[in-house]
Amino acid sequence: MLNPQRLTDRKREAILQAAITEFRSHGFEATSMDKIAASAAVSKRTVYNHFPSKDDLFAAILQQLWESSAAITELCYRADVPLRAQLLELMQQKMRMLNDAYFMDLARVAIAATIHSPERAKEMIARMDKREEGVTAWIRAAQADGKLKSVDPEFAAHLLQGQLKAFAFWPQIAMGQAPLDEPQQAAVVQTAVDMFLGYFWTKAS
């Protein structure tokens, strides 16, 4: 006998996946809860049992996007490990996330929907900026250790991560380009790290 809780979880996941598909295909405004229910092969009542409104459903999609990005960049600065090795590991994690098909699917849904409603973008942007504080914290710790120049750590983190996004996020989101292959990913990560260290690494270190 199928566990009722597992069945409920499966229905909820089916609804989320259907919503992602519908939002991507038709946009937020043109997608109805009826369409989502039909796509998920559940009743409209079941959809509302899980998500009281379309905005709540969209918020759940943003939550998945957040959790997907929150699963990375948990590395703390270590004074006993070379800066380049640590930064390479940080940016390799970031690159893996940017090349995850599920993450990109969620990002497309979120961005497409927020274009038509800037208010919806605020939470997503705030959360993604907060997630990137892991890199900012790493830079701040390296500065305190005298290994990086004393500049705004948030500014430096945006510069570093922005180089990855310029090749492995925005072209795929905005222009439908194919994901980078592994050699391309490695080249972008290594070049971004080396450029960053070339400018911000202190001569004393």
UniProtKB/TrEMBL annotation:
Q: Does the keyword Nucleus apply?
A: no
Q: Which Pfam families match?
A: TetR_C_7 (PF14246), TetR_N (PF00440)
Ranges where the HTH tetR-type domain occurs: 9-69
Q: Which SUPFAM superfamilies match?
A: Homeodomain-like, Tetracyclin repressor-like, C-terminal domain
Where along the sequence lies the DNA-binding region? 32-51
Q: Which UniProt keywords apply?
A: DNA-binding, Repressor, Transcription, Transcription regulation
| PANTHER family, sorted | HTH-TYPE TRANSCRIPTIONAL REGULATOR RUTR, TRANSCRIPTIONAL REGULATOR TETR FAMILY
Q: What is this protein called?
A: TetR/AcrR family transcriptional regulator
Classification lineage: Bacteria, Pseudomonadati, Pseudomonadota, Betaproteobacteria, Burkholderiales
